[in-house]
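Q: Given only this backbone (718 positions), what sequence would you predict?
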C-alpha cells in the first residue's frame, strides 16, 4: 500500500515536472507565418565576412538581411524576438521576465496591433520579408532554435520590438526599475525647475556622461576645413560588444534604389546609421527629460483614481510572466495598471503614472526606412519631420558639403506653471500634455562657420566652437534639454578649435584621442584624491605620487595610466545622474589593493590591465587596449576577470569614417571590436577584426558593387 502510494507520488511529481518543462510553448501564441517569396536575393561576403545583400526589391533585401544576420548571430536575434512575444523570461530567466513585465506594462502589443495596418504598404512589406527571412533560417536550422514555438515570427512582431526598445534609449527602463523597486529616481535633462516651473540658473554641468549601455561620439567636417575639399563624417557609437543592442555591419543594394552601408541592431531590417551615395548620418544618445511622473490619488479600494473631481477606474489586467528556473518555466502572476496618463506602478509611496515621449506609436519603423532612401538634404529632413524616433541626436553630412547637428526629440508640449522636473499632480487634466512639438522646434545647428559639428553626449549648446553655437536661451526650459558636458566633448572642441585644416589623418588622430581635459569632474576628483591624508601608508603615498605625475593621457605609454583609469571610473559613474561622489579614500584603497594583489605593482602597463578578450580555447583572443570610460577613444565598461584584468565589454564599437570627395564620390572605412560573427566561434570572422581594432586601424567598406566583386567575395542565395 505504502509502496503504491510512494510510486503514485513519484509519478505525480514526474508529471508535474514534465508539465512545468513543456507548458509554456504550448500556451504561447503561434502566429501565422508571413507569406513572402523573394524574387531574387544574393548575399556576398567580403574578406571580413561582412554581408552585402543584393535584391530585386527592397523587400528581397530585407529578407536577405535577416538571413545573413541569423547566420552570424542567431542567438541574439532570438533573444530580441522573445522580448517582442513576452517570452524573454522563458528564455533568459528572471532578467528576461523584467523585460516581459515592461512590455506588458507599456502594452506594446496593443500599439503594434493597432499601428501595423496603418503603416505604409512598403514598410509593411519590408518587415514582412524580414520576418520571413528569419523564419526561413529557423526552418533550415531547427537545432539552433532556443525556445520551442518562437517561430514563425511576423512583421508585426518585429515592429513590436521597435516600440519596446525605443524609449529605453532615453532612460525609461531606469525609471520603471526605480519605481518598481521603490527607489529615488534621478531625472534626465536639465536645468532644474522651481515649484512654479521656472529654471534655476546654473552653468553647464561638467559631468562624465556615459548613459548606462549607451554613449557615443559623432563628428562631421565641412569642405571649408578640409585641404582636399572633402566632406567627412565619423560614426563612433559606444554600445555593448555583444547582445541585443550590439552593432551588426551590413551593406544593402536593391534594384529599387536602396543602397546603404552601415550597421543595425538585431531585429532591424535596415541600418540605423551609415551612408548611401548622397548622404549619411550617425547618432549619439541624448537624454532630455521626456518622461513625466504623476502621483495618483486612489480611493480606498486602490482601483480608482481621482481626475478633475471625479473617480475613474484604473484599467486592470492580469498577466502571467513565464520565468525560467533551471529546467522549468514557471508562471508568475502580475497585475498591470493604466490610467489616462499612461502605465501605472504602485509602490509603498503610492501609485505613479508614467507618460513619455513617443508613447503608444510605431512610426519609428517608417522614419528609419525613409532616412535610408533619402537622396538629398531636403528629403532627409522631411523624413526626420515624421518624428517617429522619440530621442537621439543625429549628426548629418552629405555629398553637397552640408553638415549639421539635430537634437532630435519628441518634446512633450507641456503647459507652463508646473515643476516638470518633479512629481506632477495626477488629479488634474491641466497637467496632462496630449501632443508633442513639431520637428522645427528641435535644436538644430546647420553649416556653422567653424566648419565642423560634434556631439559626445553633451548639451547641444556646445557643438561647433565659440561663436558658432546655438543660444540655449532661445529654447524653453520646458523642453528639459540636458546641460551637461563630458570630457569627450571638451576634448573634441579643443582639438577641432586648434588652427589648421582637418584632413583624414588629423581626423583619425582626433577620434583616437585618449586624453582627459584638466577641467571638470576629472580634475576635481583627482584633486580630491591628492588631498587625502593617507598617513604613513607607503602604498597610498605612492599612488598619490603616481596620480600627481600622471600625464592625463590613457594611451598606455605613461606612468600611472592603469591607476588613473580605475580611480576615475567610480567618479564618472556617479556624476552621470548627479548622485553624490563616492568616498575617495575607499576608491583609492580598493584600487591600490587590486593592483597590488594581481600585478604586484601600482604601475602596470595599461595594456596589461585593460584587455580585449573574446572566446574560449582555440578561438580565444586576448589583446591590450587603451582609452578610458570618458575619453574619445572609449573603453567604457568592463568586467573584472579572475586574474584581475579588466575585460572591456562596452565602448568604441562600430566605427565608420565616411568621405565625399570634391566631386561628390563616396568612400568609407569601418571596424568592429571582434568581427562579423560574434557568437560563432567556429567562424573565421569571430575575431578577425580585433587586431586592427586595437591598433586603431580600419578596413575598407566595399560600397561600390564593382569594387566588391573585384575581390571575389563568397556569393550565395539563402
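A: Predicted residues:
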Amino acid at each position: 500500500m505504502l509502496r503504491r502510494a510512494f510510486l503514485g507520488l513519484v509519478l505525480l511529481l514526474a508529471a508535474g515536472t514534465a508539465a512545468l518543462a513543456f507548458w509554456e510553448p504550448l500556451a504561447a501564441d503561434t502566429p501565422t507565418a508571413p507569406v513572402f517569396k523573394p524574387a531574387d536575393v544574393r548575399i556576398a561576403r567580403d574578406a571580413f565576412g561582412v554581408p552585402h545583400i543584393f535584391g530585386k526589391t527592397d523587400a528581397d533585401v530585407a529578407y536577405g538581411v535577416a538571413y545573413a544576420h541569423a547566420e552570424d548571430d542567431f542567438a541574439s536575434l532570438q533573444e530580441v524576438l522573445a522580448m517582442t512575444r513576452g517570452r524573454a523570461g522563458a528564455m533568459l530567466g528572471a532578467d528576461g521576465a523584467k523585460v516581459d513585465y515592461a512590455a506588458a506594462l507599456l502594452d506594446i502589443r496593443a500599439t503594434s496591433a493597432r499601428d501595423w495596418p496603418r503603416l505604409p504598404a512598403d514598410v509593411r512589406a519590408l518587415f514582412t520579408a524580414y520576418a520571413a527571412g528569419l523564419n526561413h533560417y529557423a526552418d533550415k536550422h531547427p537545432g539552433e532554435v532556443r525556445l520551442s514555438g518562437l517561430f514563425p515570427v511576423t512583421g508585426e512582431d518585429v515592429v513590436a520590438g521597435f516600440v519596446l526598445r525605443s524609449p529605453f534609449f532615453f532612460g525609461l527602463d531606469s525609471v520603471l526599475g526605480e519605481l518598481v523597486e521603490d527607489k529615488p529616481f534621478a531625472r534626465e535633462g536639465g536645468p532644474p525647475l522651481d515649484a512654479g516651473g521656472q529654471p534655476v540658473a546654473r552653468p553647464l554641468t561638467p559631468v562624465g556622461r556615459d548613459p548606462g549601455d549607451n554613449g557615443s561620439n559623432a563628428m562631421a567636417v565641412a569642405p571649408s576645413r578640409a585641404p582636399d575639399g572633402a566632406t567627412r563624417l565619423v560614426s563612433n557609437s559606444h554600445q555593448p560588444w555583444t547582445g541585443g543592442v550590439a552593432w551588426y555591419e551590413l551593406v544593402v543594394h536593391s534594384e529599387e534604389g536602396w543602397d546603404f552601408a552601415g550597421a543595425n541592431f538585431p531585429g532591424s531590417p535596415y541600418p540605423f546609421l551609415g551612408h548611401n551615395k548622397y548622404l549619411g548620418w550617425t547618432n549619439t544618445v541624448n537624454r532630455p527629460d521626456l518622461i513625466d511622473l504623476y502621483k495618483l490619488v486612489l480611493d480606498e479600494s486602490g482601483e480608482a483614481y481621482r481626475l478633475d473631481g471625479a473617480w475613474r477606474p484604473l484599467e486592470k489586467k492580469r498577466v502571467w510572466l513565464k520565468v525560467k528556473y533551471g529546467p522549468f518555466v514557471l508562471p508568475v502572476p502580475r497585475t498591470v495598471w493604466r490610467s489616462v496618463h499612461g502605465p501605472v506602478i504602485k509602490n509603498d509611496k503610492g501609485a505613479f503614472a508614467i507618460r513619455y515621449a513617443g508613447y503608444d506609436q510605431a512610426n519609428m519603423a517608417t522614419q528609419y526606412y525613409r532616412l535610408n532612401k533619402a537622396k538629398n538634404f531636403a528629403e532627409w529632413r522631411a523624413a526626420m519631420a515624421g518624428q517617429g524616433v522619440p530621442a537621439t541626436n543625429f549628426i548629418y553630412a552629405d555629398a553637397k558639403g552640408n553638415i549639421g547637428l539635430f537634437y532630435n526629440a519628441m518634446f512633450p508640449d507641456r503647459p507652463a506653471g508646473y515643476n516638470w522636473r518633479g512629481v506632477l499632480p495626477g488629479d488634474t487634466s491641466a497637467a496632462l500634455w496630449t501632443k508633442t512639438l513639431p520637428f522645427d522646434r528641435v535644436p538644430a545647428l546647420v553649416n556653422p562657420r567653424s566648419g565642423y559639428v560634434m556631439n559626445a553626449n553633451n548639451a547641444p549648446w556646445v557643438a561647433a566652437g565659440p561663436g558658432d553655437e546655438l543660444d540655449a536661451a532661445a529654447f524653453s526650459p520646458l523642453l528639459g534639454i540636458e546641460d551637461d558636458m563630458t570630457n569627450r566633448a571638451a576634448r573634441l572642441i579643443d582639438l577641432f578649435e586648434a588652427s589648421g585644416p582637418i584632413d583624414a589623418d588629423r581626423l583619425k588622430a582626433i577620434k583616437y584621442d585618449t586624453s582627459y581635459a584638466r577641467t571638470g569632474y576629472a580634475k576635481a576628483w583627482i584633486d580630491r584624491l591628492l588631498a587625502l591624508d593617507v598617513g604613513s601608508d607607503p602604498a597610498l603615498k605612492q599612488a598619490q605620487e603616481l596620480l600627481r605625475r600622471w600625464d592625463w593621457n590613457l594611451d598606455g605609454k605613461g606612468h600611472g595610466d592603469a591607476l588613473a583609469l580605475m580611480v576615475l571610473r567610480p567618479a564618472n559613474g556617479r556624476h552621470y545622474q548627479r548622485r553624490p561622489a563616492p568616498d575617495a579614500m575607499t576608491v583609492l584603497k580598493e584600487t591600490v589593493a587590486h593592483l597590488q594583489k594581481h600585478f604586484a605593482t601600482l604601475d602596470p602597463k595599461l595594456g596589461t590591465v585593460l584587455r580585449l578578450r573574446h572566446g574560449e580555447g582555440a578561438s580565444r583572443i586576448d589583446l591590450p587596449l587603451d582609452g578610458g570610460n570618458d575619453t574619445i577613444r572609449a573603453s567604457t565598461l568592463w568586467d573584472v576577470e579572475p586574474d584581475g584584468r579588466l575585460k572591456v565589454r562596452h565602448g568604441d564599437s562600430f566605427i565608420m569614417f565616411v568621405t565625399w570627395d570634391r566631386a561628390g564620390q563616396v568612400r568609407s572605412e569601418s571596424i568592429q571590436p571582434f568581427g562579423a560573427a560574434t557568437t560563432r566561434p567556429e567562424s573565421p570572422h569571430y575575431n578577425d577584426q580585433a587586431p586592427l581594432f586595437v591598433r586603431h586601424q580600419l578596413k575598407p567598406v566595399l560600397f561600390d558593387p564593382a569594387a566588391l566583386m573585384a575581390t571575389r567575395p563568397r556569393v550565395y542565395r539563402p
